[in-house]
């Protein structure tokens, strides 16, 4: 890793206490960025920030509920005060919800998926865009899912919310381009995170045998990727090498081709 690759950048990573968010925060900090590690769980973000600091990096923990407008606003102010204006936003906070057929999905569950996966990304982007405009540079990286394009029975809320996130990414790209702000979506693949653990634990009588088997097979057949792999992709997308990308939705398996300029 290049310890100066992201020197001078202030990064806000939501859902930064574990999984892809934690790996991304650690990766960007190791490459010179000052990182705000944000989530609702104080113990987790404090541990990640302390670990980064102990390794010689710069990081602060930020308590933030991405679904709450005031919490996002106060969290971003805390980042500005502690590290400076935000130049990179990684919208990683997300929820899979409980995978159920549409006929069995409660309105509260549907709304929760959109509040976290879409509205949270919108609120965070809206809060940091003024900093990026002032600095005439910025990156918004939205962690999405291939479920946005490949429908799976029983996952309507998750799939629809991620499709909406992709479209938000494209609109942010158009609006940010005049200010040298890029927005890029990431399909991280099937990653070994707590979200996958939770998905494997769903009762097959609730979610159906097909979905239950799918989540179990990811684990049992060694299909889960380590969080460090999508973190490497995010690092690349935040670098000068990725300046040509804006409004793109990038899969993890495209990283090597991107590095070759293809």
Brief rundown of the structure:
By secondary structure, this protein is of the alpha/beta class. 49% of the residues lie in helices and 14% in strands.
Descriptive key words:
7-stranded parallel β-sheet; alpha/beta; 262 residues; 7 strands; Rossmann fold
Average residue pLDDT: 94
Our count of helices gives: 10
Low-confidence stretches: none
Q: Biggest sheet, in brief?
A: 7 strands, parallel
Q: Tell me the strand percentage band.
A: 5-15%
Relative helix content: 40-55%
The CATH topology corresponds to Rossmann fold
Order of helices and strands: EHEHEHEHEHEHHHHEH
By CATH reckoning, the class would read Alpha Beta
For the largest beta sheet, what order do the strands appear in spatially?
3-2-1-4-5-6-7
Structure summary, number of beta strands: 7
The backbone outline, from C-alpha atoms, is: globular
Any idea how many domains?
A: 1
CATH architecture label name? 3-Layer(aba) Sandwich
Query: What do we call the CATH homologous superfamily?
Result: NAD(P)-binding Rossmann-like Domain
Cα-atom radius of gyration: 18 Å
Commentary on this structure:
There is one protein chain. By secondary structure, the chain is an alpha/beta fold. It has one domain: NAD(P)-binding Rossmann-like Domain (Rossmann fold, 3-Layer(aba) Sandwich). The protein is built from ten helices and seven strands. β4, α4 and β5 form a beta-alpha-beta unit.
């Amino acid at each position: 890793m290049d310890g100066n690759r992201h020197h001078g950048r202030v990064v806000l990573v939501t859902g930064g206490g574990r999984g892809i968010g934690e790996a991304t925060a650690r990766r960007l900090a190791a490459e010179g960025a000052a990182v705000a590690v944000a989530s609702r769980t104080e113990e987790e973000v404090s541990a990640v920030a302390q670990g980064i600091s102990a390794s010689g990096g710069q990081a602060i923990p930020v308590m933030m509920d991405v679904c709450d407008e005031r919490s996002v606003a106060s969290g971003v102010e805390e980042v500005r005060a502690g590290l400076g204006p935000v130049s990179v936003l990684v919208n990683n906070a997300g929820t899979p919800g409980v995978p159920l057929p549409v006929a069995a999905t409660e309105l509260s569950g549907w709304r929760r998926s959109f509040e976290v996966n879409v509205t949270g990304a919108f609120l965070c982007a809206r809060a940091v865009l003024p900093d990026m405009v002032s600095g005439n540079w910025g990156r918004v990286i939205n962690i999405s899912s291939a479920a946005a394009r490949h429908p799976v029975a029983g996952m309507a809320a998750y799939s629809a919310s991620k499709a909406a996130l992709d479209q938000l990414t494209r609109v942010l790209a158009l609006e940010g381009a005049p200010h040298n702000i890029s927005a890029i979506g990431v399909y991280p693949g099937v990653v070994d995170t707590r979200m996958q653990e939770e998905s494997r634990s769903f009762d097959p009588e609730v979610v159906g045998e097909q979905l239950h088997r799918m989540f179990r097979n990811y684990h049992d057949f060694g299909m889960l990727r380590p969080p460090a792999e999508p973190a490497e992709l995010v690092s690349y997308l935040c670098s000068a090498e990725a300046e040509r990308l804006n409004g793109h939705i990038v899969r993890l398996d495209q990283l090597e081709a991107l590095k070759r300029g293809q």
